[in-house]
Amino acid sequence: MSKKDSAGAAQILVYLNEKNRPFSAQDVFTNLQKQCGLGKTAVVKAMEQLAQEGKIQEKVYGKQKIYFADQSQFADVSDAELKKMDARIVEISTEVQTISQSCRQLDTGLQGERDLCEGVEEEEETGNDP
One short Pfam family name for this protein (predicted)? Predict the structure, then answer.
């Protein structure tokens, strides 16, 4: 493997570990095309090499190969931690909904003000007093 290929393989490994979800070689090629500058063949070879080295896992579904980060490198999460994360997700989702509703109300109010200003400008142009 050349220096460029090994650098590309390192970037692919970092990407798969960071995203921690399954990808096909085409997906990785598309997502990292601008960063790595590797061709599709080089990406496929790098991913196969990483799988052979045991750094990532590979599953074959018919003609399609799916690659994903080796899960043994990640720490196990306890049920208590999962429940805490779920509660935090609910909390943040509620906050997002509240903020979104406030934004919609502000947008509605702003549109009303714009309409009012346009009406005043039209009356001033025609010479009528409001």
Answer: WHD_TBPIP
Q: Are residues 15 and 44 in the same domain?
A: yes
Q: How many domains does the chain have?
A: 2
Same domain, 107 and 88: yes
Total-model pTM: 0.60
- Sequence-distant (≥ 6) Cβ neighbours of residue 35 within 8 angstroms: 11
The neighbouring-strand residues paired with 57 are 68
- Rounded Cα gap, residues 109 and 100, in angstroms: 14
pLDDT tens figures, 111-125: 888 888 887 777 777
